[in-house]
Amino acid sequence: MRGCFRPSLTGREGLRSGGQSFGKRPELRHNGKFQLNHRLHSQGAAIKKVARNAPCWCGSGKKYKKCHLSQDDEARRTRAAPTPWKHADIVFKTPAQIEGIYHACQLTKEILDLVGERIGAGVTTAEINRWVHEETLARNAIPAPLNYKGFPKSVCTSINSVICHGIPDGTLLEDGDIINVDVTTIADGYYGDASRMFLIGEVSKAAKQLVATAKDCLEIGILQVRPGATVGDIGYAIQRHAEKLGYTVVREFTGHGIGISFHEAPVILHYGKRGKGMPLLPNMTFTIEPMINAGRRECQILSDGWTAVTRDGSLSAQWEHTLLVTETGVEILTA
Ligand code: MF3
Ligand code: CO
Ligand code: CO
Predict the structure, then answer these.
(1) C-alpha to C-alpha distance for 131 and 166, rounded to whole angstroms
(2) Exposed (0-12), middle (13-18) or buried (19+): which is 77, by Cβ within 10 Å?
(3) Ligand 1 centroid to 149 CA: how many Å?
(4) Is the distance from CB of 168 to CB of 307 less than 8 angstroms?
(5) 277: buried, middle or exposed (CB in 10 Å: 19+, 13-18, 0-12)?
């Protein structure tokens, strides 16, 4: 399919020439079809108002003035001027913020790698939660889901017909299951959010195809991202690909700005119309995280208030990355 890679998707080391210590970001080859570079980011929502001597919102235990106050002031200064679009809500990240978000994103990636090494039949989702919790703390970071709007665990684990926000418990993974593990890490107050699907043992062809299509949807969405493209371009590309193959796109959950907080502006719909919606601009950081169903798109929230399942019981799959809009394209920060 797409024969030409935008030059923006290759070699972007120059952007990080500020001398930060995260090293050279490797080039990523996903599959024969797309060549994506690493790193992206997006922007943010309202900056929290905290008294100078109150504890910092990031959970560090330090006073706000000794912790995130100066960063938040900087973020306020660098907010976009009002435009015909709603960019006023967007936190356009500074180079220092991008470095911090990249670091958080790389921890998220490392933790997902570890989950991938350990996961398999016979493991409980509570064990996955313990791995994520402990590996996050071991990296001097905080698992963002824990106590987020009352979420009780440190990671979301969503099996088979669970669309997202599955709560880890004693459930044993079984041969043939598909599971999404969604990790969000807070490091030095910056957020990195990514999720992957894992196949447990021998999985049906239908399940494998769904998982592969959801991944393709994410990658196709990412390929839309560059300055001047719109949020609608992302959603359109994802929806078109999913529906062409007979799958459906969940509407109730979206990608989101991220970086300074967990969920910032803008909302990134995984469906939509080409050319519609907010134009993307450099230094926005956001996620794309399409949830693709094998059956109908409708969802239902279980009585725990979190677990979102397909209404018809069909399988659902999701992949997520945190992205940065660069001057010329995109970087996948969680790759
Ligand atoms: N990580 C999810 C996302 O991609 C959000 C999970 S919220 C939680 O946006 F509270 F369930 F953790
Ligand atoms: Co997300
Ligand atoms: Co997530």
Answers:
(1) 16
(2) exposed
(3) 10
(4) no
(5) buried
pLDDT digits (tens, 9 = 90+) for 108-155: 999 999 999 999 999 999 999 999 999 999 999 999 999 999 999 999
Ligand 1: which atom is nearest the Cα of residue 263? 9
Taking the model in full, what pTM does it have? 0.79
Instruction: Give the C-alpha separation, 62 to 64, whole Å.
Output: 6
Q: Quote the ligand 2 centre to 53 CA distance (angstroms).
A: 31
Nearest to 290, CA basis, from 329, 250, 259, 327: 250
Q: Whose CA is closest to atom 2 on ligand 1?
A: 182
Q: Does residue 208 sit in helix, strand or coil?
A: helix
Per-residue buried b or exposed e for 152-170, using 16+ beta carbons within 10 Å of the residue's own CB? ebbbbbbbbbbbbbbbbee
Q: What are phi and psi of 50, to 5 degrees?
A: -130, 140
Ligand 1 pocket residues where CB is under 6 Å: 145, 148-149, 151, 156, 165, 182, 184, 193, 287, 289, 320
Report the nearest atom of ligand 1 relative to the CA of 145.
12
- CA separation for the pair 169, 146 (Å, rounded): 14
User: What residue spans of the chain are helical by DSSP H?
Assistant: 69-77, 95-118, 125-138, 205-223, 231-244
Helix, strand, coil shares, percent, the chain, to 5: 30, 25, 50
Q: pLDDT value at position 71?
A: 79
* Mutation pick for ligand 1 pocket among 105, 153, 182 (CB with most ligand atoms within 8 Å): 182
- The model's pLDDT over 297-307, given as tens digits with 9 standing for 90+, comes to 999 999 999 99
According to the model, what pLDDT value does residue 46 have? 58
